[in-house]
Amino acid sequence: MRVFLVVIDSFGIGAMPDADKFGDAESDTYGNICRSVGVSLPTLVSLGLNNIDGVAKEFGNGAGIRPVESPRAAYARLQEKTFAKDTTAGHYEIAGLVLRHPYRIYKKFPPDVVADLESAAGTHFIGNEAASGTEIIQRLGPEHLRTGCPILYTSQDSVLQIAADTSIVPLGRQYEICEAARRVMVGERAVGRVIARPFIHENGKFIRTEDRKDYALEPPGETMLDVLSANHVRVLSVGKIYDLFCGRGIAEGHHTGNNAEGLETLSSLVENLSDGFVFVNLVDTDMLYGHRNNAKGYAAALEEIDGALARMLPQLRKDDVFIVTADHGCDPTTASTDHSREYVPLLIFGDRVRPQNLGTLLGFDNIAKFVCALYGLNGDADIYEKIMR
Hints:
The protein has 13 helices and 16 strands.
């Protein structure tokens, strides 16, 4: 049997009830993209995206988000249990691990932390603020070129990010600095991820490369990847999944630089994989467009994914199950450049799946329960029996 789980990074579908506590009461990544620039997603819509609770809406002038009469998939709106809106918490919960105490979020790093970071990394830093990554490299890039000091920053996420020009700080050295920072940011100081953010400069502009690397903490509890691998299910990852879970429970990791590479890898696995569980993250929607408030770019990335799914889904085998979801929101139409606290979609497709509305489900971990039940493991039999023929 083959199960494919695709996370469209930051593809939220409306503010959760507690979104105001995160400053996200007006966020609706999918809805606001449709309203502001429009987007055509015939494959996802045919599966039931627009039929999910709260998604359908009218904008006036004949425009709107409209459900289809006969969705091809089982579909639901998922509400996160973890009191967070970051990548690590979202993916952990998808994999069945709900964080009772989400990792720490900094507005800036305290002097003692910076001192220990500089001592461990053997370099001084500039910056040390919460900022958009694309904005801070434009603003501090010239100082970085003059001083050679990497740029240290964070966001409204549990991250420590280090950015440097590869002509000033070679890529290997950037990774060494991040590895040192990862060793510092543990215990009470812990952040979910330390991220290397290499960039280059051309014609006075600073441009991120695709050499990003995430250094996550090992999951603090059991995930479905551990359960599957312990029960001899071959687990494969595509994109940043391997880094997020520190490779734990993953037999084969496929690192990709962008969505095009991720979709190409996924397509190859759909065509050729004999059996196993494939966990995919498609990051461009979040990294390139959500955080940069680029609604048109976000829409184009969604359309790229939708087109790829249109080509892949007919290749699925009789026993395959194909799942699409997200990990949080990142509304490119709001003033914020950070993630947003939103519901996420759940679409489950396959010959054995009964198309139906599953309503609003509490917990991204419903996905892990369902996947484990598919393999006859310690999952949720009720979900399995409701969905599967």
